Amino acid sequence: MASSGEELVKYITEKVVVYIEDPRSVKERRAAAKQPWLQKWFGMLPLSWSIWWNKWKLRGKK
């Protein structure tokens, strides 16, 4: 059991070191590539809903 704990600590340490040593530009690209959480969890439904809602609001102003 102790060896698996040591392996886990070693794995986490390696991931943290790689993340810290990455240049800022790589971190910014990684953050920019992420999807908005609504789209990630619910797909295109929130986008289509917002488009419909904006069209509906504009129709009421005319």
Task: Break the fold down into its secondary structure elements and pairings.
Blueprint: H1 2-21, H2 24-32, H3 37-42, H4 45-61
Q: Care to describe what's here?
A:
Helix content is 84%, strand content 0%. By secondary structure, it is mainly α.
> Structural class of the helices, strands and pairings?
mainly alpha
Number of DSSP E strands: 0
State the end-to-end distance: 70 Å
Q: SSE order, as H and E?
A: HHHH
Largest sheet: none
Quick structural overview:
By secondary structure, the protein is mainly α. It contains four helices and no strands.
Please give a handful of descriptors for the protein shown:
4 helices; 62 residues; mainly alpha; single chain
